[in-house]
Amino acid sequence: MWRFLFLTVYFYCVSFTINAQSVGLVLSGGGARGITHVGVIKALEESGIPVDYVAGTSMGAIVGSMYAMGYSSDEVITILKSDEFKRWSTGETDPAYVNYYINPDHRPSFADVHLNINRTDSLDVSTRFIPTNIVSPRQMNYAFLELYSQATAACDGNFDKLFVPFRSVAADVYEERPVIFRNGSLSDAVRTSMTFPFMFKPISVDGRLLFDGGIYNNFPVDVMRDDFNPQFMIGSVVTGNPPKPDEDDAIQQLANLIVKKTDYSIDPEVGILFRFPLDDVNLFDFSKVDELVKMGYDSTMAHMDEIKRRVARYEHPSDLSKRRTAFRNSFPAFRFKDVYITGVDSLQKRYVESAFHQFDDTFNINSFKDGYFNLISDDKISEVFPSAVFNKQNGNFDLHLKVKTQDRLKISLGANVSSSTSNVAYIGLTYQNLREYAQMAFVDAQFGRMYNAFGLGTRLDAGQPRRFYLKLNMVLHRFDYYQGNRLFYQDDRVAEFSQFEVYSKIAVGFPLTFKGRMEYGVGYANMTDFYRINSTNDGVDRSVFNLGSVFARFETYTLNNLMYPIEGYKHNFTIQMFGGQELFVSGTTGVNTETPQRTMWAQVKGQFDHYYKISDRIMLGAFAEAAYSSRKALLNYQASLIHAPAFRPTTHSQTVFNAAYSANEYLATGLKPIYRLNDQLHWRNELYLFMPYRSILRNPGNEMRYSDPLTRMEFMAETALVFNFRIATASVFLNYYTNSVSPVNFGVNVGYLLFNKKFME
Question: What Å distances lie between residue 326 and 16, 162, 262, 517, CA to CA?
Fold first, then answer.
């Protein structure tokens, strides 16, 4: 009897051991194709198949790590479809956290040459032309800290103590070997495993510069076997070894040079392997989440009976959810206390730390996010690499920041190539220095047929908590306005009239929000207008102004493009007081023919430009602008018209002078329907209505007079096909003005066309 019971228990235990295998999940790299892994996991979860261990490389490490630290497949899908994840993969900074206050003065540059100055025994100047990475790491640096720091703290840096024990693979290209992450920072483990050469910036861990683990081991079956030795393995492969290189395909040649061949197989005796034919999916196309998840899910469910025959263990999804919730509840709260900064000197540390410790002894993740994006918005800081280390003694996270300042000297280059007169080239030299205060000085110039300019200035920024800036600038520029704007202008064309200004302004600014600033200042200008009152005159008439100003300006800005935005908003309101003297010099006599006139007036101008998302493809821009000037009539009609506030909402309208759209008091509104064909190409339409309160008219004696109120209105319309490069834009446009020398205009622009502001703007 006892022998029978013993044999029964023995065979039951053997049977249970055979059927209750531990299960390991191995996920290959493969870029966006690795989203398919999530479908595999989703099928296993729903079918009650437990996963005891997970190992992955590159995208397999991203998916595997999220599952290992307690995210369900549905939660992973939500993350992959989020705007935040899209920004990790593209390097675009969250528009909500681009700090307009830090760098509000846009310049028309599309390429920078950095000059690295090392002062030792001699002056060593080196340049950096070729970037080490295509995708900016700024958004990813923050995202990985937020995503992985609490899980690292919960497992105490031991990946065996995660919700599911986890391994990832990176590559040490100097030692030419794979690096297995079993402990340490989960963020570092995943970040290094996915750092595809030239696409993402590598990071250094323990003195080693590490890259994508797929270089040496893109499918870590051996790691799973050596570290965990599960009794059953499930493998998901979404890629393969590089094909034989073609003599005309540089990418294939590079892949064969960098990537070593991987064994993408699992012994059928110990597991099951899923291979997904995804050659038609681009490595960095993360837009096909639903399609790829479905492929992984359907393939796994098609083989679920086979899996269940070999894995007899079952865990109900509700029990899995409870265990997952319990693990996630062990995450410590995101609360920071001590900040440790490396890479900068003691004065620079004060500036950096002031972005976080403002008023409270501790700060939360939202305050960290604000401070982090404040710092990286500053042109004087090249990169901030953050990490959060849990401090068991005080229950807070210690914030470690590796800060790299930008090179002090930078040469900026830009241009606009146009089919009309608005061709222009830009060059600028910027010096910047970060101490306890942030300092910047620049000199730049633009050269063209229609516009020429020279400018210089400086700005000093104080950090938190008394945040403000002091700015001084000087501008010398000339606008030459031509009669109309022909498709291909002739070199012998004479400017209809010209404006020359030289002015300087000093201003102090304060942040109002992350996107706004209030600025107060004073300025002084000498302005000369060249024109002909009578076309038969031999000489050119001139109006000369010497003016001082006091101004206050409120601005908010989130537009995603300087010339052709389709997202964000721009709001501004400016009030100015002017005072000074006007002179008129006759082109016939060359002397003052009028008594110099002293003048003083107020000017107010406001603008609302906002883009609304109607659907994934359709955006609608709403525009409004209003202006009021109390300026009296000047010495002649031409001067009065030239210096009236002008409505110029489009790029083309800024390159021509159109008297019909100038008035001392006006209201303008507009709508901008936009259809986005893809991420870079869109078709935009702009429709505007301009309503002057009183039009400026010409008396027989060449003096100005006002029309009766609200006696006319003008329309302006433009349609354009716009292609946005990473560095500039190209557009083909057709526009129409109801009242113009050239009512219909067609043209092409490539580059950036951005003028310095006029003194009275």
Answer: 28, 12, 37, 45
- Provide the pairing of β-strand 541-557 with 516-531: antiparallel
Q: What residues have CB less than 8 Å from 548, skipping those under 6 apart?
A: 522, 523, 524, 525, 578, 579, 580
Q: At what angle do helices 59-68 and 73-80 cross, to 10 degrees?
A: 130
Question: Is residue 406 within 8 Å of 427, Cβ to Cβ?
Answer: no
Burial of 535 (0-12, 13-18, 19+ CB in 10 A): exposed
User: To 10 degrees, what angle do helices 186-193 and 59-68 make?
Assistant: 160
User: Helix, strand, or coil here: 207?
Assistant: coil
Question: What are the C-alpha distances in Å from 669 to residues 165, 619, 662, 686?
Answer: 60, 17, 15, 11
CA–CA separation, 471 and 553 (whole Å): 14
β partners of residue 453: 446, 477
Comparing CA positions, the residue from 154, 153, 62, 142 lying closest to residue 98 is 142
Q: Are 32 and 196 in contact (CB under 8 A)?
A: no
Rounded Cα distance between 43 and 304, Å, is: 8
Q: What tokens appear for 307 in the block?
A: 């899996």
- What is the bridge-based pairing of β-strands 232-237 and 271-275? parallel
How far, in whole angstroms, is CA 673 from its chain's centroid?
A: 23
Give the phi and the psi of residue 328 in degrees, each rounded to 5.
-65, -30
Joined tokens for residue 345: 């000197």
Amino acid at 568: G
Coil/strand/helix, residue 268: coil
What's the CA gap between 527 and 503, in Å, rounded?
A: 8
> In angstroms, what is the C-alpha Rg of the chain?
33
Closest to 367 measured CA to CA, from 393, 330, 397, 392? 397
| Cβ-proximal residues to 443 (8 Å cutoff; 6+ apart), any chain | 428, 429, 454, 455, 456
Cβ distance 648 to 655 under 8 Å? no
Residue 538 burial (10 A CB sphere; 0-12, 13-18, 19+): exposed
CA distance 475 to 607: 24
Is the separation of the CB atoms in 485 and 736 below 8 Å? no
Mode of pairing for the β-strands spanning 396-405 and 381-391: antiparallel
Q: What is the mean pLDDT of each run of 10 residues along the chain (761 residues)?
A: 44 42 92 93 96 96 96 95 84 78 81 70 48 77 94 96 96 91 95 85 88 91 96 93 70 69 91 88 84 95 94 92 95 92 84 72 88 83 91 93 85 90 92 85 94 94 79 95 54 66 96 88 95 73 93 93 92 96 81 77 97 94 97 88 93 90 96 94 97 91 89 95 88 93 90 92 85
Tell me the pTM. Answer: 0.79
Nearest to 618 by CA among 560, 669, 570, 677: 677
Q: Which of 484, 587, 470 is nearest to 529 (CA)?
A: 587
